């Protein structure tokens, strides 16, 4: 049976995507950091086609463990991994550093996307043509890549770090689309629009938390982007349409800087180097 891996499935857009994906004839492997939330979802959905793997995406060691758990599950359940959907994401008011020493929005929103994709690439190619979806954001238009100090030690602001990580998502998709033929893996950057979730009600405080409590009310329900993402993940129409930026199920232009070949290659090579360090 065909398997989909989805990160960030315990809340918001990821949870809506997981629920909708399960209405299709696929097995869904959810990636979660919180076992209680995952158990509650299992109890609620009671699906024999749903399993969870666990880990904190801010840690390189745990990303490796997540990939190992996925590979074991694929083997035991005789599943063919053909789609990987990166939904997990976070924002932090205060600059936080991961156990590997990286600024956390960079680590969770971008580096984990790069590393988990890299670790699962042989499996995706084996079952190709496969698909990798990365949830980015309109905010990538505001992004600047601080090559000399990606970790923003001296100029951290929630939005600066978030926009940089979301620009990296699109640069990663565009560079990957260049490096992998679509008969092996196709890459899709997803703009979910403004969505009513709790993303900025978790590791935030003060003005930023308050502003999100107002702003999110203007957002659509998580089921709206979920519907388009499941279509892109599984629909025949979307097969092999690699290297595009999608909103509401249609390709739209991404920021010009996200197509800068020098920046695309830099982000890819820099991420690869960080993933090799300490292994
Ligand atoms: N909401 C919007 O308007 C909007 C707009 C543009 C883009 N996006 C993007 O959409 C994606 C999903 O966001 P959302 O709004 O649905 O947020 P959300 O409701 O907070 O969901 C985020 C998911 O990521 C998981 N997660 C966060 N940090 C993690 C970590 N270190 N390790 C493992 N899992 C982790 C969360 O787990 P827990 O359940 O344990 O917290 C949750 O399942 C993000 O990439 C975000 O940047 C959102």
Write the layout of secondary structure elements.
Blueprint (H helix, E strand, L loop, with lengths): L1 E6 L4 H10 L5 E6 L2 H11 L4 E5 L5 H17 L3 E7 L17 H23 L3 E6 L22 H22 L5 E7 L14 H10 L7 H12 L9 E4 L2 E3 L8 H16 L3
Parallel strand pairs: 1-2, 1-4, 2-3, 4-5, 5-6, 6-7
Antiparallel strand pairs: 7-8
The site of NADP nicotinamide-adenine-dinucleotide phosphate (NAP) has 28 residues, from helix 1.
Order of helices and strands: EHEHEHEHEHEHHEEH
Multimeric state of these chains?
A: single chain
**Which range best describes the helical content: under 10%, 10-25%, 25-40%, 40-55%, 55-70% or over 70%?**
40-55%
Please tell me the overall pLDDT.
97
Number of domains: 1
Quick one: CATH superfamily? NAD(P)-binding Rossmann-like Domain
Spatially, the strands of the biggest sheet line up as 3-2-1-4-5-6-7-8
- CATH C-level class is Alpha Beta
Main sheet: strands, sense, barrel? 8 strands, mixed
Provide a quick synopsis of the model.
By secondary structure, this protein is α/β, with parallel strands linked by helices. The protein has helices at residues 12-21, 35-45, 60-76, 104-126, 158-179, 206-215, 223-234, 261-276, and strands spanning 2-7, 27-32, 50-54, 80-86, 130-135, 185-191, 244-247, 250-252.
Task: Report on the architecture of this protein.
- By secondary structure, the protein is an alpha/beta fold.
- It has a single domain (2-194, 222-276), classed as Rossmann fold.
- The protein is 43% helix and 16% strand.
- The protein has eight helices and eight strands, in the order E-H-E-H-E-H-E-H-E-H-E-H-H-E-E-H.
- It has helices at 12-21, 35-45, 60-76, 104-126, 158-179, 206-215, 223-234, 261-276, and strands at residues 2-7, 27-32, 50-54, 80-86, 130-135, 185-191, 244-247, 250-252.
- The protein has an eight-stranded mixed β-sheet with strand order 3-2-1-4-5-6-7-8, with helices on both faces.
- Strand 2, helix 2 and strand 3 (50-54) form a beta-alpha-beta unit.
- Helix 1 crosses helix 7, helix 3 (60-76) packs parallel to helix 4 (104-126) and helix 4 packs parallel to helix 5 (158-179).
- It starts with a strand and ends with a helix.
- The mean pLDDT is 97.
């Amino acid at each position: 049976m065909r398997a989909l891996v989805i990160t960030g499935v315990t809340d918001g857009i990821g949870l809506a995507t997981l629920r909708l994906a399960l209405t299709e004839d696929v097995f869904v492997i959810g990636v979660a950091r919180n076992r209680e939330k995952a158990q509650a979802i299992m109890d609620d959905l009671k699906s024999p086609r749903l399993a969870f793997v666990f880990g904190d995406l801010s840690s390189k060691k745990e990303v490796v463990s997540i990939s190992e758990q996925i590979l074991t599950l694929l083997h035991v359940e005789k599943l063919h991994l053909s789609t990987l959907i990166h939904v997990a994401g976070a924002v932090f008011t205060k600059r936080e550093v991961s156990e590997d020493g990286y600024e956390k929005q960079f680590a969770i929103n971008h580096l984990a996307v790069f590393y988990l994709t890299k670790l699962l690439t042989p499996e995706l190619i084996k079952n190709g043509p496969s698909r990798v979806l990365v949830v980015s954001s309109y905010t990538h238009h505001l992004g600047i890549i601080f090559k000399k100090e990606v970790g923003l030690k001296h100029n951290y602001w929630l939005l600066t770090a978030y926009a940089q990580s979301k620009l990296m998502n699109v640069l990663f998709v565009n560079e990957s689309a260049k490096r992998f033929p679509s008969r092996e893996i196709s890459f899709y950057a997803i703009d979910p629009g403004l969505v009513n979730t709790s993303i900025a009600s978790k590791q935030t405080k003060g003005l930023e938390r308050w502003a999100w409590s107002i702003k999110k009310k203007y957002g659509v329900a998580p089921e709206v982007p979920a519907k388009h993402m499941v279509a892109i993940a599984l629909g025949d129409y979307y097969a092999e349409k690699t290297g595009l930026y999608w909103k509401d199920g249609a390709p739209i232009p991404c920021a010009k800087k996200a197509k800068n070949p020098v920046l695309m290659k830099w982000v890819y090579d820099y991420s690869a180097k960080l993933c090799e360090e300490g292994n």
